Amino acid sequence: MSDFSAANALIERHARRVPDFPTTGVEFIDLTPVLADSEAFDCVIDALGGEWSDIDLVAGLDARGFLLGAAVAMHLNTGVLAIRKAGKLPPPVFSRTYQLEYGEATLEIPAEGVELAGKRVLVVDDVLATGGTVAAAVELLGEAGAEVAGISVVLEVPGLGGRDKLVGHNVRCLSAG
């Protein structure tokens, strides 16, 4: 069994499905049990980082992407960049505001202290749903001069159009909700 199929099976076994959360009619898929199981966590990290090469930096999205991104960076023997929610980093910052299904949000990265120009970056997150957060991260990294080499997520929620916002990028999802 490949890393990908093994990770998919472990995600399916451990993920907790919560009906009507955060609102009625929505099924929330809680990946916390996947991350808490050492075998599942190790397999997921191997699969998230497995196919990527020539990566200079892994970018993890606030907040679960921090956990995954740091572990993938260790796996790939590279550094990690935390892409933060607005107001968490000291200035100067690069920032990108994007639309959510219920409002808007802003992501930020340091404009000083981390040289991103010309770096090949792997973006890592837990879930790809509507794609707004990941697309904003990709735009933000591009603004800073980085090249997004790929996007790797644990779970893709089908039918929400997330991939449509990432056309032209190499996207790897381990499991479909």
TrEMBL record:
Protein name: Adenine phosphoribosyltransferase
Family statement: Belongs to the purine/pyrimidine phosphoribosyltransferase family.
EC number: 2.4.2.7
Phosphoribosyltransferase domain: residues covered: 54-158
PANTHER family hit by this protein: ADENINE PHOSPHORIBOSYLTRANSFERASE
Alphabetical list of HAMAP family matching this protein: Aden_phosphoribosyltr
Localization per Swiss-Prot or TrEMBL: Cytoplasm
Gene transcribed to yield this protein: apt
One Pfam family here: Pribosyltran
Gene Ontology molecular function: adenine binding; adenine phosphoribosyltransferase activity; AMP binding
The organism of origin for this protein: Dietzia timorensis
Assembly notes: Homodimer.
Reactions it catalyzes: AMP + diphosphate = 5-phospho-alpha-D-ribose 1-diphosphate + adenine
Broad enzyme group: transferase
Pathway involvement of the protein, from the record: Purine metabolism; AMP biosynthesis via salvage pathway; AMP from adenine: step 1/1
Keyword Transferase: yes
